[in-house]
Amino acid sequence: MQRRHFLTLAGAVAAGALAGSRLLAQGVDVDAILRDPAAPTAGNPKGDVTVVAFLDYNCPFCKKAAPDLERTVKEDGKIRLVYKDWPILTEASVYGAQMALAAKYQGGYSRVHHALMAIPGRGVSKEQMAAAVRASGIDLARLEADLTAHAGDISTLLKRNLAQAESIGLQGTPTYLIGPFRTSTLDYAGSKQAFAEARRRQAAE
Amino acid sequence: MAGQDGMTGHSLAKALRWGVLALACLSPLKAGATEAAGFTSLFAPSATGEPFTLEAARAASGALLLRWTVEPGNYLYRDSLEATRDGAPVPLERPAGEVKDDPTFGVVQIFPRDVEASAGGLEGTGTLRVAYQGCSETGICFPPQARLVDLASLAIEQAPAGLMSSPADGSGRNSVASTGAAAMPASLDESDGIASLFQGSLGWTMLAFLGFGLLLALTPCVFPMIPILAGMLTRSGQALTARRSLVLTGAYVLAMAGAYGLVGAVAGWSGASLQAALQTPLALGVSAAIFTLLALSMFGLFDLALPAGLSARLTGRGTGGSLGGAALVGFGSALIVGPCVTPPLAGAMLYAAATGDAATGAAALFMLGLGMGLPLMLVGAFGPALLPRGGVWLERTKQLFGVVFLAVAILLAGRLLPPPATLALLGVLLVGSAAFFGGFDRLTAASGAAARLARGGGMAAALYGATLIIGAAGGAQDPLRPLVFASAPAASQGEDTAVTVASSDGFDRAVAEAAAGPANGRPILVDVTAAWCSVCRSNEQVLAGPELRARLSHLPQVTADVTHTNAETRALMERFRIVGPPALFLVDAQGREIPGSRIIGPVTVEEITRRLDAAGA
């Protein structure tokens, strides 16, 4: 009880702060994209550079680049990674995104995300995705419950991602926003370069 | 309920974090403003035009011709070209595509240049819906496109497309259940047996953990608590009544259970690893100090060393033992049995950390501690009748327990000290107590049997102690094999396939090495162990046994040594969400844990074999 009370209070304070920033910041959309509190994150939450990854679970290039991105984020140690589930390619992609986001409620987003990203190809069916999620070791009963209980929240987030991608004119998956940059090709060397450049720009500003 | 609670907390906490950041330094505002200018494209060509355009025409035969213009550098997937009329599929005549064989994506047919498809039987009026999808060679896949072709005028307009418009709306529609949930085994129950305990009602959860605690009380790792408790009661001396003894034992047990409850609460609050918290140098150091103080009070040194008031509090003279002292010892005892209770703790912890439901996690672990402590109440009930009541024997017994307490303090400190130092300390303790108990006393012809026995026992202890000190000087680590260094190769022989690491980076390097070695592509066995973890020793014996030796010799192994608690070992444990040793699991060549391969706690040959089979190792 006390904890909930505390968090409600803290939430109110935080909401006030966010509202303030929304009024002050010019780029409303950009701020929302970088700091959507509902979007799953990885890497270092206090990192000095943020990468926003717009991904689809049926996007072959996303899957190809995923290990390189994870490796860069891990090795660097100061990168904040924001996942934007942007299921645009197939209907199964939507299904995969819903499961991954539902897993977030039990702290299992990255587990499901990696399980789905690990299925190669572009024509992955819902059944294949469900099998991968089953094998990921996630609490399925919980996932099922969260999927139902939070259907509205998940749907809202997916739509918000969609709108955000549209607002900055993204063409397809994958798209990575690294600091002020946007790219769709990301390999290990390239991503290191991009992060270095983004840091350089940030320092110059 | 718990789920909703947890999520609310989670997102709020996250919001809070960002909010505080925004308040504290306004840096997000600055970042937002500077980046608001728009994202510049760093690598991708800024393709502004449509990569694909669709046109429709009528052939002389009356068939409908669909023509896609493909901008250079892009391609359409052949199988994505589809047409429907009033929801019914219309067969399209598509030319053979170019075969693209990508190791990552498999074999697909693509159209990297303009392509034409035709469909017959589409005379008259109506609307044809045409869908297509493609990618750019630069590595970006475009969303599927849909166009509506008016069959009479052949005018083309954008179709109201979008996957998101429908499926994400239907709340229950895309549940896991609708996609083969019937065939979905409760895999959780198999791999994380303890976690399933939480799926029942709260009452059953609590009962189950109480039962688990009772079972744990029967394992050897709780036995050290018995002499500790007995020692505590002995210290109270003559004033100890049966009733007082029970009260003291109750305080001890409650404090022990409380320590676990606290750990559960911390886990629920912060999601932090439990044993990382318990095994911090501070916690261990404080506990070691407590036991040292207790030991000194057993030797009667306390009255001199401490202010009378504090001494009286701690030793509880006159009142038959103080409740506070008993509780203090109980709390410290929770640390001693740490590694033994790893499996149930892991279950409770994972639950508490995953749901953020601190209350349930704390209550469950409290019940666990209570279960572990209940049998100890027997000691409390019958102790006073069995323990000496006064005279020389009482003094002797107190001294004996003083030695036990010192040993406990050394073992606790040993989790921080290098193993040889621990060995040396134990050796010194043994030699010292040997002197204390008469091991070096001169025997005369008149000496009685008791004195002779004491001399014999003391000499044996002194000899063992001396051996330990010699072993420590030689760098030995195992108190049961202090002279192992004398037979040099034995130590390294059995472990030639295993690389020992103590950090997340080291783990990555070891995995990369193993993956590059002859066992390329095979799973890698990861053994999380610590020098102070007794169950780990027996696990190692299982692994080295004849049934598994041959099989494991082909398998790369990485030993994660978390003997020393520091930022690196903590990060390593948190990475794999390990609560503490012992844990055994398999990772793939990329260092990712293979789901369902984890064994927490003691292992058996059958269990390992099963996991190896499942992982194809």
Automatic annotation (TrEMBL), chain A:
UniProt protein name: Protein-disulfide isomerase
Transmembrane regions: none
Listed GO MF terms: isomerase activity; oxidoreductase activity
Entry function: May be required for disulfide bond formation in some proteins.
PANTHER family xrefs: DISULFIDE BOND FORMATION PROTEIN D, GLUTATHIONE S-TRANSFERASE KAPPA
Domain Thioredoxin: from-to ranges: 8-200
Family matches, as SUPFAM superfamilies: Thioredoxin-like
Signal peptide residue numbers: 1-25
Biological classification of the source: Bacteria, Pseudomonadati, Pseudomonadota, Alphaproteobacteria, Hyphomicrobiales
Matches recorded under Gene3D superfamilies: Glutaredoxin
Family: Belongs to the thioredoxin family. DsbA subfamily.
UniProt entry keywords in alphabetical sequence: Disulfide bond, Isomerase, Oxidoreductase, Redox-active center, Signal
From TrEMBL, chain B:
Keywords, comma-separated and alphabetical: Cell membrane, Cytochrome c-type biogenesis, Membrane, Transmembrane, Transmembrane helix
Main location: membrane
An example Gene Ontology molecular-function term: protein-disulfide reductase activity
Any single GO CC term annotated in Swiss-Prot or TrEMBL for this entry: plasma membrane
Record-linked InterPro entries: Cyt_c_assmbl_TM_dom (IPR003834), DsbDN (IPR028250), DsbDN_sf (IPR036929), Thioredoxin-like_sf (IPR036249), Thioredoxin_domain (IPR013766)
Gene3D superfamilies named in the record: Glutaredoxin, Thiol:disulfide interchange protein DsbD, N-terminal domain
A biological process term (GO) from this entry: cell redox homeostasis
Boundaries of every Thioredoxin domain copy: 482-617
Subcellular location: Cell membrane
Pfam families: DsbD_N (PF11412), DsbD_TM (PF02683), Thioredoxin_7 (PF13899)
Topology within the bilayer: Multi-pass membrane protein
Residues annotated as transmembrane: 204-234, 246-270, 282-306, 327-352, 364-387, 399-417, 423-441, 453-474
Name of this chain's protein: Thiol:disulfide interchange protein DsbD
